[in-house]
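User: Could you check the structure of this?
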Amino acid sequence: MTEEEKQCTKLKKCPDLDRGGIDYNPAGLLWTISASDAGVDVLISEQGKDLQVYKTMIIFLERGNSKAGLQHIWERHHQDFKNLAKGITKESDLSAYIYNTMKLGHSGTWGYQKCTKIKTGGFEVVYIVHEKLYLHVVFGGNGFIVTAKITNEGMASYDKYEY
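Assistant: Sure, the predicted C-alpha cells are below.
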C-alpha cells in the first residue's frame, strides 16, 4: 500500500478523491488503489478521458449497500469466491482478495469491456488469477468498485488488454 492509500484508509478520507470532486462515503471507505497499481492507467488514459476517474486515477472500494460495493459483492457472489478462491470466509477476506488481485497490476490484467449499464460509465476489467481463474472488477466513472465476481469461464467476449 502506498502512503496515500494508507492515509486514506487510516483517515477514512481521501484527499485525491476530494480534490477530484468525487462523491464518496468517507465513513464507508475501505481502501483505494492507484489506477497504475491496478493496471488500468493506460485503459483510463486512452478510453476514459470523459470519466471522473481520469482526473484522480484512483479506484476505491466502499462498504456500500446491497446494490453496490463490498456488501453487494458479498451478498451476491461470496459463495463463488468461497468455492473458487478458497479461504474466503468473511467480507474482510474478500476485500483483501480483490485488493491483492488488483495489485497484480499490468501483469494481471487480461481484458476489459466498457460498462454501458452504469450511468456514469466505467469499465469491467478482468484479472487473470491463474490459468483458469478470473476476477472481474466493475468500477464506475468515478472509480468506485460497483461489483466484482470470480469465474473460471472463458473470456471470449472481452477485448484483450494490450499495451
